[in-house]
Design brief:
Strand order of the largest sheet: 2-3-1-4-5
Largest sheet: 5 strands, parallel
Number of strands: 9
Domain RapZ C-terminal: 164-281
Strand content: 15-25%
Binding site for GTP: 59-62
Domain RapZ-like N-terminal: 1-154
Order of helices and strands: EHEHEHEHHEHEEHHEHE
Radius of gyration: 22 Å
CATH architecture of the largest domain: 3-Layer(aba) Sandwich
Protein name: RNase adapter RapZ
Helix content: 25-40%
Distance between the termini: 32 Å
Number of domains: 2
CATH superfamily of the largest domain: P-loop containing nucleotide triphosphate hydrolases
CATH class of the largest domain: Alpha Beta
Shape: elongated
Structural class: alpha/beta
Binding site for ATP: 8-15
Number of helices: 9
CATH topology of the largest domain: Rossmann fold
Length: 288
C-alpha cells in the first residue's frame, strides 16, 4: 500500500497537490486529525485490496490535534506501515501575496499579521520538514507545473534532488529580476536585434540560436556558465536550499538571453535536475 502524507506551509499548494494525487488514483483525505491516522491506515490496509494508494493532507489547521502527528507516525511505523512525506513550501513574499489575493487570514495567527503567522508555522513545521522525502518549493510554480512535478515523482518514478531550479530570461530595459539568486548578463554577446532578418524571431528559433552561438565568446561563456552551475548546485543542496532562481538577461530579453537560458535548461535537464524555464519578456517564447 502506497501511503503519502502531504503537508507544508499554509498557502503553499497542498489543496492543489491533493487534487493532483486524486487524478493519479490516490484515495485522498483532507485534514484528518493525526490521532486517527493509525486507525484509518489499518482500515485501508484491510479493505481487501480496494484501496492501494492513500494521500492524507495534514497541517496546522488541526490546531492542538496537530501535536499528535509524530506519535501517530511512530505508531503506524511500529505497525509495519511505510509512509513518505511530501512537504510543500514557498517564500514569505509569495505566501503573503497569495493570502492577500484570496483575502484569507493565516490559520495560525488569524487576528495578527500574515508574516507573523508564516514565521510561527515555519518554526512549528521545522521538524516535520526534516522527515520529508520530497520537498517542493511552489514559489514559482503554476498549478499545472505543480501537478507535473507530482506526476514526475509519483508516476514516472523520478527521484530528483530536493531543489528546483528556475531559469528565467529577461530584458534589463524592463527591469532586473527581483527574486533571482544568480543573475548573468549576456549583453556582451553579438545582438541579433541589429540583424534585420533576425529581429522578429526569438531565441527559441533555430536561426537566432545559430547566430548567437556561432561566436567563440558565446561558446566559451556557455561552457564556463555550465561549469559554474554544476559546481554550485551541490553546495546549494548541502545548504538545504529548496529552490535556485537563475536569471539570464540581455537588453530586450528576446534573443541572447532566451538562447543561453534554453541551452542551460537543456543541459541541466539532461543531467536529471528538476528544472523549470520561463522567458519573461519574449512573446511566444515560453517553454515547459
Amino acid at each position: 500500500m502506497k501511503f503519502v502524507i502531504i503537508t507544508g506551509l499554509s498557502g503553499a499548494g497542498k489543496s492543489q497537490a491533493m487534487k493532483s494525487m486524486e487524478d493519479l488514483g490516490y484515495y485522498c483525505v483532507d485534514n484528518l486529525p493525526p490521532a486517527l491516522i493509525p486507525k484509518f491506515t489499518d482500515l485501508c490496509f484491510h479493505a481487501q485490496g480496494e484501496i492501494e494508494k492513500i494521500a492524507l493532507v495534514i497541517d496546522i489547521r488541526g490546531g492542538r490535534f496537530f501535536d499528535d502527528l509524530f506519535k501517530s507516525l511512530d505508531v503506524i511505523k511500529n505497525q509495519g506501515y511505510n509512509y513518505e512525506i511530501l512537504f510543500l513550501e514557498a517564500s514569505d513574499e509569495v505566501l503573503i501575496k497569495r493570502f492577500k489575493e484570496t483575502r484569507r487570514v493565516h490559520p495560525i495567527n488569524p487576528s495578527g499579521r500574515i508574516i507573523e503567522g508564516i514565521t510561527k508555522e515555519r518554526e512549528k513545521l521545522a521538524e516535520l520538514k526534516k522527515k520529508a522525502k520530497y520537498i517542493v518549493d511552489t514559489s514559482n510554480l503554476t498549478s499545472a507545473q505543480l501537478k507535473e512535478e507530482i506526476k514526475k515523482i509519483y508516476i514516472e518514478g523520478v527521484k530528483p534532488d530536493n531543489i528546483t531550479i528556475f531559469i528565467q530570461s529577461f530584458g534589463f530595459k524592463k527591469g532586473i529580476l527581483l527574486d533571482a539568486d544568480l543573475v548573468f548578463d549576456v549583453r556582451f554577446l553579438p545582438n541579433p536585434h541589429y540583424i534585420e532578418t533576425l529581429r522578429d524571431y526569438t531565441g527559441n528559433d533555430k536561426v537566432v540560436r545559430d547566430y548567437v552561438m556561432k561566436w567563440p565568446e558565446s561558446i566559451e561563456f556557455v561552457e564556463k556558465l555550465n561549469d559554474m552551475i554544476d559546481f554550485l548546485i551541490p553546495l546549494y543542496i548541502k545548504e538545504g536550499k529548496s529552490q535556485l532562481v537563475i536569471g539570464i538577461g540581455c537588453t530586450g530579453g528576446k534573443h541572447r538571453s532566451v538562447t543561453v537560458a534554453n541551452i542551460l535548461y537543456e543541459r541541466l535537464k539532461d543531467k536529471g535536475h528538476r528544472v523549470i524555464i520561463n522567458h519573461r519578456d519574449s512573446v511566444n517564447a515560453f517553454r515547459e
